[in-house]
UniProtKB/TrEMBL annotation:
Protein name: TIGR03013 family PEP-CTERM/XrtA system glycosyltransferase
Keyword Transferase in record: yes
Coiled-coil region list: none
Family membership noted in the UniProt record: Belongs to the bacterial sugar transferase family.
Length: 467
């Protein structure tokens, strides 16, 4: 795994993305050269912004491929995965994006003939590149050999996570090293007993492992091999904490196994003025752009709500924001009036009978969230961040869920990491799962992660019916 702007990215995904960007830009030059071939030599068209046009073409196609989930290919499916069926819709979406760009910036337009050739060449190149990558993913040479220190329940969870199907990063578990007094929860034939006189370094070298994952819940006492783990690190073997392993593989922070010291001394939680300024600038720019683009949709939505269930059009509700401050969030009303006649707040369920017909549509498309743009412009919310909850539920969850208040260290968002990775929550268990994603965002938030959340939000709204 690579770590870019605090976010974990698979080396396979990054390499594939880098290669495909080169293919797209190279295809642009090749298509232009073939189109202007005069019989003796390739002559590129005389455009003032030729390289910029190539970059815009590559960006449009990569965005479209990301929005359709082409960088979330299940490696376990190998060549059986019909990725080429997603390529045509990606190119169609890219063509629409390019049409809009050329309308706004006509100097970047490079001609219909060149565009057809570029699409044909780049499509062929991407299919071939994907076939090579998916075929190479089946080779055992790409596997990472790891050892888990511990044999208990936590070690079993880590082992199950390492061997799950569909992951870009393939692991081969060399075994589990037991700790004194620990209950064995892993298969006994995978337990590696340390022979007398043999060190952990020698065991790791004997099994040719490149990483050791420390998966011991209780590290107190004199039995924890801290000196041997240090020796392993000095010999070039990566030593990883179970919390970091979970964070890296699931993009979550596990609240049931994380140590407070790991949160305190670990990286992340960037709240510097530079990050705050960049995020606020991004929020204002994105909100103003979305407000202009979505204004017709908002007007139609307001009319539809009024026709079905009359006024009020908007719904205002108290939510908990940064540092626990309460503010009123603005949304399009998606439920019947007096939906909580008993006076007691209720969880919003996936098929909630209180939702109107118009409300069901705007919830799936997340149109009901659009008035929150005003909250962002007022500085009460961010464009990307944890979902703001009601004070009644926050009070309950703070008492029952560890570290729940950590999510209030940054502004809540219209969309967020938990919202694109997890569905609607209507229980404490769901709240825990969403919190684990929220903690990952709070710890690792960056401009890159914000952009990835926005791409996933677009994908959820347009192609998966919303969550």
């Amino acid at each position: 795994m690579l770590r870019i702007s605090n976010h974990y990215i698979s080396k396979v995904v990054f390499s594939l993305l880098f290669l495909e960007v080169l293919i797209l830009i190279g295809s642009f030059y090749a298509g232009a050269g073939l189109r202007i071939f005069d019989g003796d030599e390739f002559v590129l068209p005389k455009l003032d912004h030729f390289f910029m046009s190539a970059c815009v073409f590559a960006a449009a196609i990569v965005f479209s491929m990301s929005a359709l989930g082409m960088y979330q290919v299940k490696v376990s499916e190998g060549l059986r995965n019909p990725f080429f069926l997603q390529l045509m819709p990606s190119f169609a979406m890219g063509f629409c994006i390019l049409t809009l760009v050329f309308y706004l910036a006509p100097d970047l337009y490079f001609g219909r003939g060149i565009l057809i050739l570029v699409f044909c060449i780049s499509g062929t190149g991407i299919v071939l590149a994907r076939m090579v990558f998916l075929k190479s993913s089946e080779l055992s040479i790409l596997e990472s050999r790891i050892i888990f220190v511990g044999c208990g329940h936590l070690a079993k969870e880590c082992g199950d996570l390492a061997t799950r199907s569909g992951s870009y990063h393939k692991y081969h578990i060399a075994g589990y090293v037991p700790m004194p007094g620990e209950e064995i929860s892993v298969p006994r034939d995978r337990v590696l007993a340390l022979e007398s006189g043999k060190s952990l370094v020698q065991l790791a070298q004997q099994n040719r492992v490149s990483e050791i994952v420390v998966s011991v819940q209780n590290r107190r006492g004199g039995t924890f091999p801290i000196k041997e783990l240090l020796d392993c690190k000095l010999y070039g073997i990566s030593v990883t904490d179970s919390s970091t392993f979970f964070e890296r593989e699931t993009f979550q922070i596990r609240v049931d196994s994380v140590q407070p010291s790991w949160l305190v001394f670990g990286g992340g939680f960037d709240q510097s003025w530079v990050r705050t300024f960049m995020k606020r600038s991004f929020d204002v720019a994105a909100s103003l752009l979305l407000l202009v683009v979505s204004l017709p949709v908002m007007l139609v939505t307001a009319l539809a709500i009024y026709i079905e269930d009359r006024a009020p059009i908007f719904y205002s509700q108290e939510r908990v924001g940064k540092d626990g401050h309460v503010f009123r969030v603005m949304k399009f009303r998606s439920m019947f009036t007096n939906a909580e006649q008993g006076g007691k707040p209720q969880w919003a369920a996936k098929n909630d009978p209180r939702i109107t017909r118009v409300g069901n549509i705007i919830r799936k498309l997340r149109i009901d969230e659009l008035p929150q743009i005003l909250n962002v412009l007022k500085g009460e919310m961010s464009f990307v961040g944890p979902r703001p909850e009601r004070p009644y539920f926050v009070e309950q969850l703070t008492e029952r869920v560890p570290y729940y208040n950590v999510r209030h260290s940054i502004k809540p968002g219209i969309t967020g990491w938990a919202q694109v990775r997890y569905g609607y929550g209507d229980s404490v268990e769901d709240a825990v799962q969403k919190l684990q994603y929220d903690l990952y965002y709070v710890k690792n938030n960056s401009l890159l992660l914000d952009v990835l959340v926005l791409i996933d939000t677009f994908k959820v709204v347009m192609f998966r019916g919303g969550r």
